[in-house]
Automatic annotation (TrEMBL), chains A, C:
Protein name: Dihydroorotate dehydrogenase
Cofactor needs: FMN
Binding residues annotated for substrate, in chain numbering: 45, 69-73, 127, 192-193
Function field: Catalyzes the conversion of dihydroorotate to orotate with NAD(+) as electron acceptor.
Gene from which this protein is expressed: pyrD
Gene Ontology MF, one: dihydroorotate dehydrogenase (NAD+) activity
Primary subcellular site in the record, as a coarse category: cytoplasm
From TrEMBL, chains B, D:
Cofactor note: Binds 1 [2Fe-2S] cluster per subunit.
Segments forming domain FAD-binding FR-type: 2-99
Binding-site list for [2Fe-2S] cluster: 216, 221, 224, 238
Keywords, ordered alphabetically: 2Fe-2S, Electron transport, FAD, Flavoprotein, Iron, Iron-sulfur, Metal-binding, Pyrimidine biosynthesis, Transport
Organism expressing this protein natively: Ornithinibacillus xuwenensis
Gene3D superfamilies: Dihydroorotate dehydrogenase, electron transfer subunit, Nucleotide-binding domain of ferredoxin-NADP reductase (FNR) module, Translation factors
Gene: pyrK
Protein family according to the UniProt entry: Belongs to the PyrK family.
NCBIfam families associated with the record: PRK00054.1-4
Biological or metabolic pathway of the protein: Pyrimidine metabolism; UMP biosynthesis via de novo pathway; orotate from (S)-dihydroorotate (NAD(+) route): step 1/1
Subunit structure of this chain's protein: Heterotetramer of 2 PyrK and 2 PyrD type B subunits.
Name listed for the protein in its UniProt record: Dihydroorotate dehydrogenase B (NAD(+)), electron transfer subunit
Binding of FAD, residues: 50-53, 74-75
Cofactor(s) of this protein: [2Fe-2S] cluster; FAD
UniProt KW Metal-binding keyword: yes
Length: 304, 251, 304, 251
């Protein structure tokens, strides 16, 4: 019997599979398709200080082997999430990871601290792909100093392990990873979406109302694998890998590249059972490629 | 509850310009589907499923009928599917039209283009329940008209084409004075049409079926939201809709 | 009759379509499929100071709606190219653009100057996605200062218009574009490939011998469109757009985003006639979307 | 010169474990193809074409035969194509085996796995020209053996399986002492096999057909290069090859 279990800071995962933030809401909808207790963990939709209505629609577009989205962090706000969403997920025997976002250091700090009030959340995923309004809107996630700063502050405010979610829209992903590791990150989560655009030929304007959107899906997998492969050799903290995962083979590719767990996002839209299906297929896939356990496969694709 | 089902295509016909009617076999969905709900159809390797309304449903023969217009890469690919091919669908999706009048009354159906299909299943259901059904159906031009006889069989039906190449000329809103008095209206079509209609029929009780680009189709991704009239809320078209009370959402 | 002609610095294009550098060799192979005089221009494979043998094989891998390549600038060297390849292409009634690369400022300067010796080349495409060996191998194309420096030097050395080919692997593409414009670039060419990787599950190592490779093809089109849309509003020089073009509709999308001409790369491998087919389809495609000319469509998708 | 042609599948058979034989109809290519050349086949929406050797060619019936092993996503998709389906191919690609001996002599064919197919077309051609053909064919195990009778019809044939489940046990190089004296050899198979073989047969005149991951398949992208023995040159497998004189390239 192959062993799917993985132990990460704050997360004792029965298997390495979890839905990615924003692609699974707060689990309610997909809980009608299968028992969420089957999942290694659930990463919730981003939480901000107060309720956000997000961007105007259209918010999504389809691209070759991928999609663009500009939802705009729509969410009911951290308090409402703790009151109504977390308890729902807590009914299931799985780990809950809260994805936190903000437009200022203060907002991040507030959201992080708020999650101290619930005992049901096991870890925070720090989404730094957000514009810092006080600093002219440049993203926290594209500047090592700002990324380190927000990581420090969240780390101080929270009693939970922090997984910093890196943006791929940077010249040097290794600098970003090292900066947040140094700032106290317990783990990394990568990659977030790559900024893209699609233009409607008849309307002669971007399809997405926000103009640009984040590219996700199979199209970005090679970029995710490359970044995880590079970063996993430069940091000591574990990586939750994501970006275009559609099958158990894809999961193995992420493990080989150095990820310790794998999140599935866009593929949930194609097949609502995808996480469940991948978990079922994982043991035989590991066996097929001569691995006894998920643990054994981590980083095995790295050429030294 | 939404099911992930396989549906076998038992017939596919081109019923108007770029418009395909497909009859799909499926015992589960044909039994529970209600008017206004849709199928979220996976097409080939496309990343996103395509939402297509249930145009008809036959509980005895266990079939679902869809009518779609070739509108891009996905519907073009779907149009090439043949009898015997199997579709992977999420269904039934959405709330559907609520039919709550106590005393059967007169209902106006207003459809525009690809908004016409769901109204047929609705009209049939209303007629069966004893309602009087009046339909106003708008199309681009003669070649794009479909299901005229089917709607006529349900009750008085006015066809409108933008260029007047068939039926009345203009927009559906131009012929409203020609329809008999009605108690409430149900409409589906382009947002501009729904806006014009709901403004013109302000005060009348109406239900609108909306369209928006969708991601998940099940309520999880927040792609398809629409703000509520009160200004400080929103609804998900895929889950809370696609049908809304005309007063509920701000188009 | 729609008008396909476009006038760019040094390039009077009968139509805006040209094969992208590295995907068309020096034209010999594809000249057996159709008359190269049909093309608006031909961008040659990169030229370096002396002959290069490139990277070990495997050099390519397939990804979802794309491919990875790490050819490694294999070429016979600038002199040989001028002696044997340029004269071949010069037989055709089209524009010749020489893609130049190097590992040092000196090499770039030498290659650029060398092309002054032939009257057949109409413009240079400056490929700055190359590691600068003297500066610890960081790419010229990921640092605005280095990019500006190499642009200045090449501009000084050459009597031809310079189109600087930007790398998408940067945090801020606008800074890069402005820097090279300020340094004297006559135009921009974008985008080059996005660095990616694919891992072979049975061999447990990257498929590409060079480990990482450049991602190209339809998968990257949304990134190319986004960057061209952003950059075209910030610079005054024209843009040759590329990245995943497979059809005349794609060409129109690039024009709407702000490109003045469009290069086709990976699609040549799928269909050797692709450039010819696109040129045939372009007039009816422009008409379908109500444009009288290519010129009229440029930048029309930009929301202001 | 390479043509872009459409070929209609007129038969497709599973002739061994995961191994498909397809017969394709095409007047143009069947007339000009020579042994050792290959087809560069477009499969669905895949970015890259797949190179597959010409296993046989019938000029009268205007057919090309290919034999391929299901080895990944592309060949898996190709295996699902049916009779009547049309393939988009670039052909004939590559130089092919040069058959230049003046006096017909004895030729040894050594094939391994997916390297066996091109040798059949070669062997048939050689036999027609009056050469004596001896074949050594290596397969993984019994289930993967194909075309044994076809090769036997050309001349003495030794089958080798890695696990000995059929014919001789081991590698093709283990049975070379069993073959009669020959004048030159032609081989196609995994690089490791070609290395071992060319070392063992050093001095003998030999031709090797090589494999490499390809981009364009026409010589334009430099994806498929292999260094020449002299150390300061290279060859493109798709254009200068896939067949090379054993002395020409360094494996
Ligand atoms: C609830 C609902 C019910 C619908 N019912 C029908 C029907 O019964 N018959 C019919 O012909 N059409 C119907 N539509 C519209 C139909 O979904 C689109 O025409 C179809 O998705 C276009 O896909 P495509 O691949 O052809 O176009 P593409 O432009 O290639 O699609 C690209 C992406 O945009 C989305 N998209 C494009 N146009 C629309 C649109 N108008 N609405 C929503 N998403 C769109 C696609 O779903 C896909 O995700 C309905 C839409 C919704 C939301
Ligand atoms: C000149 C030549 C002749 C060939 N003749 C035959 C033949 O007659 N019968 C046969 O079964 N196979 C043959 N092959 C091997 C065949 O091309 C590969 O098995 C096939 O490309 C695998 O594609 P895939 O999609 O199944 O695998 P995938 O792994 O999904 O392919 C991904 C990419 O890698 C490439 N690739 C993977 N394996 C190989 C390989 N071994 N060689 C070259 N490219 C590869 C594919 O072409 C594709 O670009 C030949 C290869 C070459 C170069
Ligand atoms: C519709 C949508 C919404 C998303 N929302 C969030 C979010 O709120 N927070 C976040 O960190 N990432 C968000 N993401 C990014 C995903 O979590 C994931 O990092 C990315 O999509 C790559 O994975 P995938 O290719 O499997 O989708 C979102 C992605 C999609 C497609
Ligand atoms: C096999 C291959 C080789 C390439 N070689 C070069 C090169 O030598 N110089 C260069 O500037 N770009 C090179 N490129 C990048 C292309 O010119 C182009 O910028 C990129 O592939 C995006 O376009 P596409 O998606 O249409 O291929 C190469 C691309 C490929 C696929
Ligand atoms: S489509 Fe995802 S919430 Fe409606
Ligand atoms: S595959 Fe392009 S040169 Fe051989």
């Amino acid at each position: 019997m192959t062993q799917l279990r993985v132990e990460l800071p704050g997360l004792s995962l029965k298997n390495p599979i979890m839905p990615a933030s924003g692609c699974f809401g707060f689990g309610r909808e997909y809980s009608e398709f299968y028992d969420l207790s089957k999942l290694g963990a659930v990463i919730m939709k981003a939480a901000t200080g107060s309720e956000r209505f997000g961007n105007p629609t259209p918010r999504v577009a389809e691209t070759a082997s991928g999609m663009l989205n500009a939802i705009g962090l729509q969410n009911p706000g951290v308090q409402k999430i703790i009151e109504t969403e977390v308890p729902f997920l807590a009914q299931y025997n799985t780990n809950i990871i809260a994805n936190i976002a903000g437009s200022s250091l203060e907002e991040y700090e507030y959201v992080a601290r708020s999650f101290n009030d619930t005992s049901f959340v096991h870890a925070l995923e720090l989404n730094i792909s957000c514009p810092n309004v006080k600093e002219g809107g440049i993203q926290f996630g594209t500047n090592p100093k700002m990324a380190a700063r927000v990581t420090e502050i969240v780390k101080k405010a929270s009693k939970l392990p922090i997984y910093v979610k890196l943006s791929p829209n940077v010249t040097n992903i290794i600098d970003m990873a090292k900066a947040v590791e140094k700032a106290g990150a317990d783990g990394l989560s990568m990659i977030n979406t790559i900024t893209g655009m699609q233009i409607h030929l008849t309307e002669r304007k971007p399809i997405i109302a926000n103009k640009t959107g984040g590219l996700s899906g199979a199209a970005i997998k090679p970029v995710a694998i490359r970044m995880i492969y590079e970063v996993s050799q430069q940091v000591k903290i574990p990586i939750i890998g994501m970006g275009g995962v559609q099958s158990a083979e894809d999961v193995l590719e992420f493990l080989l590249a150095g990820a310790s767990a794998v999140a599935v996002g866009t593929a949930n839209f194609q097949n609502p059972f995808i996480c469940s299906d991948i978990i079922d297929a994982l043991p035989s896939t590991l066996e097929k490629y001569d691995f006894q356990s998920v643990q054994e496969a981590i980083g095995k694709g790295i050429l030294v | 509850m939404i099911h992930k089902e396989l549906m076998t295509i038992i017939s596919t016909n081109r019923i108007a310009e770029d418009s395909i009617e497909m009859v799909l076999k499926n015992p589960c969905i044909s039994e529970i589907a209600i008017p206004g709900q849709f199928l979220h159809i996976r097409i080939g390797e496309k990343t996103l499923r395509r939402p297509i309304s249930i145009a008809d449903c036959n509980r005895e023969q266990q079939t679902i009928t869809i009518i779609f217009k070739i509108n891009g890469a996905g519907t073009e690919e779907l149009a090439m599917y043949r009898c015997g091919d199997v579709l992977d669908v999420l269904a039934p999706v959405g709330n559907g039209f609520s039919i709550d009048k106590e005393s059967p009354s007169t209902i106006l159906l207003v459809g525009g283009g690809i908004g016409v299909p769901p109204l047929y299943f609705l009209g049939k259901t209303l007629k069966d329940k004893g309602y009087t059904v009046v339909s106003v159906l708008g199309f681009q031009h003669k070649a794009s008209v479909f299901y005229e006889d089917e709607f006529k069989a349900l009750g008085e039906t006015i066809i409108v084409t933008n260029d007047g190449s068939y039926g009345e000329k203009g927009f559906v809103t131009d012929v409203l004075d020609k329809v008999p008095t009605f108690d409430s209206y149900y409409s589906c079509g382009p947002i501009v049409m729904l806006k014009a209609l709901s403004t013109k029929l302000a005060g009348k009780e109406g239900y609108l079926s909306l369209e928006e680009r969708m991601g998940c189709g099940v309520g999880a991704c927040f792609a398809c939201v629409i703000p509520t009239k009160d200004g400080n809320g929103y609804k998900k078209i895929c889950k809370d809709g696609p049908v809304f009370h005309a007063e509920e959402v701000s188009l």
